[in-house]
Structures are given as structure tokens and as C-alpha cells.
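[step 3/7] fold_predict: job queued, chain A
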Amino acid sequence: MIIRPYYLKTLKTYRDVPLVKILAGIRRCGKSTILDMLRDDLVESGISLDHIISVSYTSEDFDNGMTDKDMYDNIKKQMIDDKRYYLLLDEVQEIFGWEKAINSLLERTNSDIYVTGSNSKLMSSEISTYLTGRYISIPVYTLSFLEYLDFKKQDLKSPKDLLNEYIRFGGFPIVAIGNFDAHSAYQIVEGIYNSVITNDITKRHNVTNIDLFNRVVKYIIENVGKTFSANSIVKFLKSEGRSLSIETIYNYLSWLEKAFVIYRCQRYDLQGKSILKTQEKFYLADTSLKYCMMGFNPTSIAAMLENIVYFELRRRGYEVYIGKNKTKEIDFVAIRRDERIYVQVCSRLLDMSDREIDNLLEIKDNYQKYIITLDELATGNIKGIKIIHLADFLLNDEY
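[step 4/7] structure written:
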């Protein structure tokens, strides 16, 4: 098992704090393994195995209508004394009313609780009724490039080659741990995608027109990193002779978000210092989701670089927005407490127009501005704007 230090460190920070620790992310991003890491760390720190209760709710054993009361009773009967128990509960959303069981365990037992899940039941809006103020959400993403290098320690390829591989194959751990060609890697990712769509969306929400739903998803994937609206999707479908209401489009987008397939990036007005509700962008949970469905195309790398930078900023705790400065756009405005950075992303510096550079220069505050690129020869700065190679940015969290 390859350790993912960031998540282990985060969980150790909240160990024995009376909050439910909720790890949420797309299926197969590594949540179950993180619980295994936590179990091993608990044992190493002196916790007895019989005071660590691990349950996975993904097996067929729990397909027979287990209730929240059953969940509570099954865990409670394993707690035979008053000492602290550590509860590691995987994919809890499969149990209807799991929040009530967790709330009861938190209130009535001496326990430290960790749960994982991969759909809307782990979103804040879904659990606030029972756990208000008593949980901490820890988003789990697919592998960062730094983690990817850990997974590839035995690989003799150079970091540059591994970066190209990471861009192309993405960061699902099951892909990174192997040595797959493109066809095999994308088959694995396609299987993950189909599992998410089937289990977390079409079955859960009774989607009847699967073909039309898939066409909407394809449109979103084709337009990763571009601003668009539900209305633009409706117009596109109409041009193909298909019909779908704006309300249905909003539902599809919401369900994809709640299954952690896509992430919404809103626009931030730098003049009014407010978040705008129109013309958002969406990014994919992993770059490989695009390539497994549409094939790898070098011309699409620019949008996928944005995708990678977006998630790296989120991993580092930033709130990430598209920047709007009057009529001009900045790829990302990233805000973390009293910090702020501005970022433009391009595959080659030569591909970046003077207009895009000017967009950064016209921001008159003193926060750091970056251009992140794959251009090997691009270094230094342009009028105070730091130029950074993508690998340097991904491997150095000081940026």
C-alpha cells in the first residue's frame, strides 16, 4: 500500500476531535485505501485492533435493505467496553438514513468516527440536518502529480515523461499502480465512469433517456475549461434535432456534481469583489475521464492543463474562481484566507496572446501573478509575472 501523506496528516490533525470526519470523492479515487492507511496508523500509535471497527457498505451483504437502526445496532454490539473505539465506515451512503446512525453513535458512544462516500449523501447540504456543526468535510481527489511520482517510484522514466503520462492517463490510483498502455488504462477509467453513472446517477435519479443524458455529458466533457450555460446546451441539442428542458439540464449538472464527476468553477468579479452566477466553467474529476470517452488528442491538452492546475489549487486549500476584470478574463483567481494569487495557464508561451498577459498586468493589486506552462524554455518573469513550468508548480507548494 502506497501512503498518501497529505490525507494521513489531515486525519491525524483531527484525530480524537469530536467531529465526524467525512471523506468524499469520486469512486475509485482512493478513499477506502485512505481508511486502510488510517487503520494501520492507529495500530502503530498503540490502538488495539479490537477497538478499531472497520465496515464497508459496498458488499452484497448490505443489499438487503439495511436500515440506519441496523447500522447502529451492528456497530454498537461490537463495542464491549467504555474505552474509545475508532469507527472506519466505507461508502456509508449505501445505507438509507446513515446520518441518523452516525449521529446516535457520536452522541451515545465513546467513538472517533471516519466515513467515506461517493455521492450527494456526503455533500454538506445533505447531512446538515443531523450533523450540524459536528463534522468536517475532507474532499478526496485522484492523485496529485507528487503522489503519482510516489506510485511510480520503481519506474525508470524521467519526471518529464511521467508528467506527460500523468496528463494523458490521469490520477486514478488503480491506473497509476499498474503499467498499462493507453487502451487498457482508458478501459479501466471507462469502467469507473460507467459505475458512477449507473450507481450514483441513472439508477438513483431514475434517468430514463440514457442516450440523451450521455449526450449532455459528452457536451460538458467537450467543453471542459470553457464557459457555457444550460441554455447553450439546450440550443446545441436543438441543433441536433433533440429536445431537453433547461430544468432537466440543471438537474443533470447537479447530479454529475454530486457524484463528483464534475466540479463547478464560478466567476469572480474583481471590480465588485462578488461571485457571479452565470457563465461558469466545469472541470472533470480526472483528465482521463475525457480521454477514455473521446480519445487522446494533443490539441485538447490546453484545457486539460487548466483542469490539472484547478485541482492542484483546490488540494492546497484555495477557493478557485474564474477571474473577471471588466470585460477581461483570468483563468484562475485562487483565494485562501487573506492570500490571493492570479493564474493563467497555457501549453506554450508562444500560444499565449499579448491580450492574456495584459489581462494579468491590468490587475493593480500586489498579489502574485503566475503563468503556468509546459514550455521548457519559458522561465523567469514578464513585468513581474512569474513564469513557471507545470512540473515545478505541481511539485512545489510554495507557489
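[step 5/7] annotate
Residues 209-395 form one domain.
The mean pLDDT is 90.
exit 0
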